[in-house]
């Protein structure tokens, strides 16, 4: 079914620049208001067309205004001669815009590629990975697949040898895809499976599809890690103590006797604070650090040849910026110090970060886990799975399936389909609670020796801990970054557009873009931007909340009309993410109207505690809160709030306010809370309600009054 001959898709797309120019002109003609020009660039011995925009307008393809480097790209579908254009912001499984051309061009392309395909069949030997190097990631084999949304068709490809099939997900995404409705032809002789920590489950599923058929499976779940040790630290301080002990010993040894180490963190602030402190305490150590704010030019240079760049380095510190495409086999690197947060990365992505250094023998790791939510027993684990399933699926899909209760899962836990379902649920909801459990289980399966470091008793002496010093240095680095952004070169919109489309930016250019994005978001003058303003409002969440305010206001004359406008936009764009945002708007507005005396998100009046209690404890409010509990997971991506509400039973005002504020804060950065410790009055307060903030749009500063004597004046 997926053989090269039956697929009719070549392994190499041979398209000349003259043909690409004709297609590019068609695209430019249709989108002349948005696109400025196009270029043909060679990548992996192939020519592709890249389109640059000329104005910060809403993208006609993804319906968003691009904040960063987001170009369009185009390629030719060799099977029919069509030219497909997509925006880089679109997902790989989203359809692009198709441009038809005359049949002679299609015939020419097919003939050229037919000759190349015939020549490729003469080459024998395994070499299957070479086929993927030449294929752009967005080239699909749609015609030959039967798949559902749970397993995207782009992850199944034919191999050079007839009958061979490649099944897998790109390892850098850190996701596992379920082969639930994938069909594999009977004439497939060999299946090569490439995936992450749950590949064995997919393999079991493939075997079930191929009963009584002779075939072999080659898979690459992970490199064996026999003999390596993975020591779990009870806290961050233990990891830092081990790191400082190593640094002290290395600084006293002659160069020829020194060994190197890596520092792997999920959070950039951890890397920055630790490295600044280490450089102060051990200035003789040679340290490299890589994260989202490090110099991109230096990063690109070092990543091009890490063996040479790190040959004389004592410590390499990195975040997830290093997890794709970089691998070091220098035996000098023997130890790794790791600080992970269960809510930052997927398990597969974290495992890739761990194994970038191939020769490390000893890992010391602390996983910051919300221990109160971590299932300890097997029954607790499967109970969580059932809860996740019920909470996170749309109502019409809940309570369907083959596992109605915990006991049936445990009884059949060794059946491949059950194991696959469990794996799918864990990956689908990116379990924060089970992060450490799954990660350690994966490493144990890989052959590593797992041990737990006993906690060190706290000293009674008042000594400043390493964690406190690192935290202080992290704050200093943050202040310096804010100062750099504040003093960055002011760029106009046209220059910002040019920088966003620039493939490799300098550190100064990145800071200028950061400054420009803040100015553009809040509509303030570049000259008036201060360090204090950046510190308060330059955070990603603050900008997200402010855009949510603006979206609500700009969509209509009042909030109810605005939500309806956003919903109508959803149907035009057919975007689940936008639909979810609209649902968040609607829920928050209904929460305020039904469950509090506040009239709107702009209402900053003070309300007596008795009035607040009367609203929150009313039968209508209680019913609405109960209906909100399952939505917290599905709409607001907050299973913790959902579980907490279930545990409390929503019997107290505090529990109900907690649920209400979880929704308001996620959407607008707002909270409805008491103004004093005596709880005599409550009010709605937001992140932009400071008196010393710069001039913001009227609908946010309150200068445009919406409510007078309880009436809407708009």
Automatic annotation (TrEMBL):
It comes from the Eukaryota. This is Replication origin-binding protein domain-containing protein. It comes from Rhizophagus irregularis.
